[in-house]
Design brief:
The chain is of the alpha+beta class. It contains 22 helices and 33 strands. The strands form eight sheets. A seven-stranded mixed sheet has the order 5-8-3-2-14-18-16. A six-stranded mixed sheet has the order 17-20-21-22-24-23, with helices on both faces. α7 packs parallel to α8 and α9 packs across α11. The radius of gyration is 36 Å and the shape is elongated. It comes from Shewanella metallivivens.
Length: 818
């Protein structure tokens, strides 16, 4: 029988229990969960519309809807009246008997599903989805909520449909179902045919500050004009045909407030009649500049195309003069937009207007006008940063996706804090007015303006061009866009708190209000963390940790190009990223998007192993060293300190053999036994042993536990006795056979003696508990929260720009009287 050399003596053992008969076998339920099970089992079956690579299939189709609209803004009544002609192109292979339209203004009617299903959380008076991070001891209603109730009660809201007719002005039968309308066609609409219909409608515009909508008006009572002035931001302002797709047919899920809008691409021809002293901006390109702009304004606009910095088309002084205008009459502004999925606009006499051209390499669209519209309340903050942020967004996003295909990118200040539409976005931050007639802005407002402009302008790419279904999968526009706006803000200024870093999502991922990212928008408990931050962090980790930038950027750009001006689903994104990167990502997408697992990898133990050579001269000497390295007993140490002599020391002339040889002394018999075994080894075994002895490397076994359930790569940093450090990445596949616990052997050179190790030291994987990342365990530094929340909040919004104008006063010195 040949004897092999046992190279490693493990510091742990395993055991098995065998029974003598079948009746004694104890069966147990298995607990294995395959975290690497193929996601394809859960995705829709690939077909000729959407193939297995995540591309539009050979028979991909989508509908087209064209609009010609004439609309009048009644400023005094704050009311819209419109007439529109809809041309619907049926590109689907199916015959349609009716069309569904979205009537989002009906969402604010008292009998709407949205209003009747709204909930009261009893904490801050909000009637939106409850925040269950904590409970309040009592219920309360805020003044803002009362204001909302009063406005809804005092105004007749929702669409008023005056007529629905066909191309020959014959009435069509229609049925209104909440915030939707079904129009029955006089004859079925087959494949590759079009139909035209007309709708006359009106509605009362919402006061955005009162109701909290995505559009509406804002009133400025103190402007130098009798009755004050308004800014109108108009969106969801006309009946829009719902989407009809290969994967859902009619998208007729009711608008409840959270789920945004999925629409068809089409061409828009829109004329807006407004008070003659208003400035209007909109989706598309102005067609009649000679009729609505002065010669000076047209000249400035032309100059702005090649300017190095923004040029005022309407200056601050001109806008201020407009605020006190008493001009009567109206003007009609005419805009056209091709191949867009929506149309929004803004109108006010308060607008300052600046513009700057952005040049890009795209031969089809080399020139883009970046523009901003804002009242005097926007002040220097908007003048400095709005248009600059627009251009920065186009530069960064185009690098990751495709060149910007539209002729304009617009940022408008008004009552809406942040909302996006093709070519135009509504953004909220402003300056602060002081008694000394100056305007300043806080650092927080500056950061917010830059961040929100980047985010909302970025939405032109997702979902205005890559046309995902926001109502069903909010993360596909908000999450992907948040990922990109994080990149753009870091490239603007790394100190901007808008980075979408892993640490931004850890509290949410271990909370009790987490739901899977794939949850439909209206059912999400915490929309911000779920639809914005968590998917953005996931993509950040996918880029920086899992795939690396080169593979991720290639796959992401491939996805963007494949689905430009088309309608992707989550399966198209997942399949494209995997197919184009060449990496199996099913475990990643399943864990991050379909579960509520979180990342918590614990480094439980590190065992140091040593080569067991069976050579007694080597092994016994090592045992002697280990024995001598043990701490000396207190009693022995104190005896030595007191000078007490042992019997052996006092009788050195009377010692026997055992006093002169310790328990680790080697005998010739043991040497002969080893030599015989060594001679029986195969030559290759002798070579392996000789090399291992010569190299004398260190063998460490690391025991890891996956406490959060979400499998991730293990980012390991090792620190050695000589002060050197080494970083290792153990891929997520290490968990494939044992998703809860794994062990890993790590071998280091002789001089690299390990003293400590840490998992994910830089916080790159969103690990929710860093205390168990260290071995040995360490004291974790933590900031002491020394101030109340109100004080911290006040510090955040310090207006140092204004406060530092105050003259420094000499401190008073009080003289104590004797």
């Amino acid at each position: 029988m040949r004897v092999c050399c046992q190279l490693l003596l493990l510091a742990f053992t395993s055991s098995a229990i065998f029974t003598s008969s079948a009746s004694e076998i104890v069966q147990s339920k298995g607990h294995f969960e395959d975290k690497f099970r193929q996601l394809e089992e859960s995705l829709p079956t690939a077909n000729d519309y959407r193939n297995a690579a995540g591309e539009p299939g050979k028979d991909y189709w989508q509908q087209q809807v064209d609009y010609k609209i004439n609309v009048t803004l009644d400023e005094k009544k704050r009311r819209i009246e419109g007439k529109q002609v809809i041309t619907y192109h049926n590109n689907s292979p199916y015959t349609l008997k009716y069309l569904w339209l979205q009537l989002e203004q009906n969402r604010f009617k008292s009998d709407s599903i949205a209003e009747r299903s709204s909930t009261f959380n009893g904490v801050d008076g909000s009637v939106s989805a409850a925040n269950t991070y904590g409970d309040s001891a009592f219920a309360k209603i805020s003044l803002q909520d009362l204001r909302r109730q009063h406005f809804l009660a005092d105004n007749n809201l929702g669409y008023q449909i005056a007529a629905v007719t066909d191309a020959n002005k014959k009435p069509l039968k229609y049925t209104i179902v909440g915030a939707q309308m079904r129009i029955d066609l006089p004859k079925s609409l087959p494949h590759n045919q079009s139909t035209t219909l007309n709708i006359n409608y009106s509605y009362n515009i919402l006061e955005e500050d009162a109701v909290g909508a995505r559009s509406g008006y804002e009133h400025f009572p103190d402007d130098e004009r009798e009755g004050g002035n308004d800014i109108f931001l108009l969106a969801q302002w006309f009946p829009r045909v719902a989407s009809y797709s290969d994967y859902e047919a009619w998208h007729n899920k009711e608008f409840l407030g959270s789920g945004e809008f999925t629409l068809e691409f089409g061409n828009y021809d829109v004329s807006m009649t407004v008070p003659s002293d208003h400035i209007v901006t909109a989706t598309g390109v102005l067609q009649n500049s000679k009729s609505v702009l002065s010669a000076a304004q047209r000249e400035r606009l032309e100059k702005a195309k090649t300017a190095k910095k923004p040029v005022f088309i309407v200056s601050a002084d001109e806008a201020l003069a407009n605020e006190s205008s008493v001009v009567s009459g109206t003007k009609t502004w005419h805009f056209k937009a091709d191949n867009v999925r929506d149309f929004a606009w803004a109108s006010s006499r308060k607008f300052i207007w600046d513009a700057q051209g952005y040049q890009q390499k795209d031969s089809n669209n080399p020139h883009v006008m970046a523009m901003s519209f804002y009242p005097k309340e926007g002040g220097e903050l908007w003048q400095r940063y709005s248009t600059a942020s627009v251009i920065h967004t186009l530069k960064v996003y185009s690098r990751f996706t495709f060149d910007y295909p539209y002729p304009a990118a617009i940022s408008v200040n008004g009552p809406v804090g942040g909302m996006e539409y093709p070519m135009i976005s509504f953004n909220g931050p402003r300056t602060i007015w002081h008694d000394d007639e100056s305007r300043t802005y806080t650092l927080s407002e500056k950061q917010f303006l830059i961040g929100v402009v980047i985010h909302e302008v970025g939405h032109n790419y997702f979902p205005m061009i890559v046309n995902s279904d926001e109502r069903q999968w909010t993360w596909m526009d908000e999450g992907i866009n948040s990922f990109l706006d994080g990149i753009a803000t870091r490239e603007w200024d790394p100190n901007l708190p808008w980075g979408r870093e892993p640490s931004d999502v850890t509290e949410y991922m271990k909370s009790n209000v987490q739901v899977p990212i794939m949850t439909q928008s209206d059912s999400v408990l915490q929309l911000g963390p779920n639809a914005y931050i968590k998917p953005a962090v996931a993509l950040n980790i996918l880029r920086e940790v899992v795939l690396g930038r080169e593979l991720f950027d290639f796959a992401f750009q491939e996805y963007s190009h494949r689905w430009m001006n088309k309608r992707p689903t989550p399966s198209d994104f997942f399949r494209t990223m995997e197919e184009a990167s060449g990496v199996d990502l099913d475990w990643f997408f399943r864990g991050w998007f379909y579960t509520t697992d979180h990342v918590d990898i614990s480094l439980d133990r590190i065992y140091k192993l040593r080569l067991d050579t069976n050579n007694p001269d080597i092994d016994f000497d090592r045992r002697r060293q280990d024995y001598q390295a043990k701490p000396m007993p207190y009693s022995v140490e104190r005896n030595q300190q007191s000078g007490q002599k042992t019997w052996v020391e006092l009788n050195s002339d009377n010692l026997d053999y055992h006093d002169q040889h310790d328990q680790f002394s080697v005998t010739n018999k043991e040497r002969n036994k080893y030599n015989k075994k060594h001679a029986e080894l195969d030559p290759w075994e002798q070579q392996v042993l000789a090399r291992a002895l010569k190299e004398d490397k260190n063998y460490y076994v690391f025991n890891f536990a996956n406490l959060g359930g979400l499998v991730m790569p293990i980012l390991l940093e090792l620190t050695f006795e000589n002060g050197n450090t080494e970083s290792l990445v153990l891929p997520a596949e290490i968990w494939r056979r044992s998703p809860s616990q794994v062990s890993k052997l790590i071998v280091t050179d002789k001089d690299n003696i390990l003293v400590s190790a840490v998992v994910d030291r830089r916080g790159e994987t969103a690990d929710v508990d860093i205390e168990n990342n260290y071995y040995p365990r360490q004291i974790i530094p933590s900031r002491i929260e020394a101030f109340k929340e109100e004080e911290r909040k006040g510090n955040k919004y310090r207006d140092i720009m204004h406060d530092n104008k105050e003259a420094l006063k000499e401190p008073e010195i009080k003289v104590k009287k004797k």
